[in-house]
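One example given next:
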Amino acid sequence: MPRCRNVGPALLAMGLVVVIGGADHPSNLERASAVATEQLQQLARLARSWYSSTPPADRMTWGGLAACGVLGLSVLAERSLRLRKARVLPTRFVDRFRDRLEDGQLDQSKGTDLCEMNPSPASRIALAAIRRWGRPAPDLERAVSLARQVEADRLRRNVGTLRRIAALAPLVGLLGTLMAAGRALSHLEGAAASASWGPALGGALAPLTAGVALAILALVAYDGLMGRVEALENALDRLGAETVDAIAVLATAQQASRADKGSMAAATPHRNASAGPHFGVGGQPRGSQPIRVEIPDSLRNF
């Protein structure tokens, strides 16, 4: 592993050649590709030399530490992209949705279309309440709570892997240190044992040091991601509560408006059809009996 320290400065020099010289010139591109090829070949030679000179137990230890490091970096990169605020709480959707809720311009159909056109954790939580429009407030709160739990599980996905790496890496390093120390002690004999004890112990402590350093980095990354997850969960909770309150108020207002219209229609007096005509309106309905007029006998022969 210490032999690989010369690769970093070489790669840095290659990058400086490309940046300073300009990557658009053919000679600079050829020079950069030649430097890259040379460094890759040197890296391959160092890897083969290290593999052949390292005992199998040490190879397993360093391989496990390398696997933990690669896994931690991949989880950190993936979660950093997934936990962006613009992805979880799109500003455009949240602003439009809140404006319509405050202005009272949102109904079930418009809210459903708005949420489906902007897929995100925030829109799915709002959609869970909108789909139960008109139901009691406890039903809305229960639906929002279930949707929030689903989204929280998605946000926390793979974050716990960093905590497991923080617990596993020191153990792997400690195992490698113990095996290296035991192997070094078994080869110390005679008067040279006291003089060789220091370098052997220093080399044996390298895996443990690397494991502890990896665990510290994993814990720092875990705490950072969990802080971001908790902040996003609180924002989703606020959005869900605002949606439930607004829907309950709008549903109550709509029910009150329908009740007022029904009471006004019931209080309006109905015109009596048998009251006779009034200015040509409300005459005798069809199907009624004709008017019977009796003529006196004295006028029949007149």
Q: What stands out?
A: Residues 206-267 form the longest helix (62 residues). The mean pLDDT is 76. Residues 1-53 form one domain. The two ends are 142 Å apart (CA to CA).
